[in-house]
Design brief:
The protein has a single domain, classed as 434 Repressor (Amino-terminal Domain), CATH 1.10.260. By secondary structure, it is mainly alpha-helical. Helix 2 runs antiparallel to helix 3. The longest helix has 13 residues. The protein contains 7 helices and 2 strands; from the N terminus they run E-H-H-H-H-H-E-H-H.
Length: 107
């Protein structure tokens, strides 16, 4: 079955409080609570669109397959969100500037 998995995208953003983050970005408290619970059974297309706009992603990046691993969708795996802070730890100011330039240029 398909499940909405916001945890991965939230972790990539370094967000600790998913519900507050969603409310601060225009979701009602009720919708934010449902999404943050991780037990979402149904998502309106308008909510899916809003999530895609917020995370600058496609629905494919929001949905995960949790069913029969033999199904074709079971073969698609997504990597765990990297810990950005650990990746940047120990970098010099010059290295951080270079990383920021590359990000700005889309390299």
């Amino acid at each position: 079955m398909l499940v909405l998995n916001l945890k991965r995208l939230i972790e990539m953003r370094g967000v600790k409080q998913m519900r507050s983050y969603l409310v601060n970005h225009g979701f009602t408290d009720s919708v934010a609570r449902t999404l943050a619970s991780g037990e979402t059974k149904m998502v309106r297309l308008s909510t899916l669109v809003k999530l895609c706009e917020l995370f600058e992603c496609t629905p494919n990046e929001l949905l995960d397959w949790q069913g029969d691993p033999r199904h074709v969708l079971g073969q698609v795996s997504k990597s765990k969100a990297p810990d950005i802070w650990k990746l940047l730890e120990g970098k010099s100011a010059l290295e951080l500037e270079e990383i920021l330039k590359r990000i700005a240029n889309g390299d």
